[in-house]
Amino acid sequence: MDEAKLIHRLQCRRRYALDQAIEQFTPYVGAVIWRILASSAAGREDVEEAVSDVFLALWAHAEELDPERGLRPWLGAVARNKALDVLRRLPPACPLDEDCPSPAEGPQETLERREQARQLWQAVDGLEEPDRTLFFRYYYQEEKLKEIAMDLGLNPATAKTRLARGRKRLRGILTKGGAAGEKAF
Questions:
Q1: What distance in Å separates the CA atoms of residue 9 and residue 114, rounded to the nearest whole number?
Q2: Residues 155-169 pLDDT 10s
Q3: Do the Cβ atoms of 59 and 18 come closer than 8 Å?
Q4: 102 CB-side CA count, 13 A
Q5: Angle at which helices 107-125 and 156-176 pack, to 10 degrees?
Q6: pLDDT at 153 over 80
Q7: Looking at CB atoms within 10 Å, which of 40, 128, 148, 154 has the fewest?
Q8: What is d(CA 151, CA 40) in angstroms, rounded to the nearest whole number?
Q9: What pLDDT, in 10s, does the model give residues 49-105?
Q10: DSSP per residue, the chain
């Protein structure tokens, strides 16, 4: 659906327009939020709550939308702000997770691991659709492959094949780029 038409229908308070916006833009909104929260102590529930808050804000502020500017930039800005709100609510202490160095891990190892994670995320972000969404939902949001395949209109076997080919492509990108891509998979 054209974004201008979708905005107009949202402004007319058509419930199906909100459903359409949620279906169309949830992967994008989730990716924006995840990029901000990935290195924090935020969990999957925090990401899901922030995504829901974005669409609640969309419904509450539909009359303020500009059809000429489109919906994606507005959703991206709101998603960023909602993710930052989550960060502000998190406790300042660093929990024991992959972003905190283990007692045996020094600053150099921590820096290398973070750089590998950044390169991996950049490589995933460079994938074409539906592979980008497939990787994000399967590996970052830990959703079941069958559900993702159904949502994306793919056969589960096709989705599994796309993941395998995508891993191979990412491994090539990361090892060509100088990252220790073999460690990432």
A1: 43
A2: 989 999 998 888 888
A3: yes
A4: 5
A5: 130
A6: yes
A7: 128
A8: 28
A9: 999 999 999 999 999 999 888 899 999 999 999 998 988 887 654 444 555 555 556
A10: --HHHHHHHHHTT-HHHHHHHHHHHHHHHHHHHHHHHTTSS--HHHHHHHHHHHHHHHHHTGGG--TTT-SHHHHHHHHHHHHHHHHHHS-SS--SSTTSPPTT--HHHHHHHHHHHHHHHHHHHTSPTTHHHHHIIIIIS---HHHHHHHHT--HHHHHHHHHHHHHHHHHHHHHTTS-HHHH-
pTM assigned to the model? 0.51
Q: Looking at residues 104-127, what average pLDDT do you find?
A: 74
Closest CA to 75 of 86, 90, 89, 59: 59
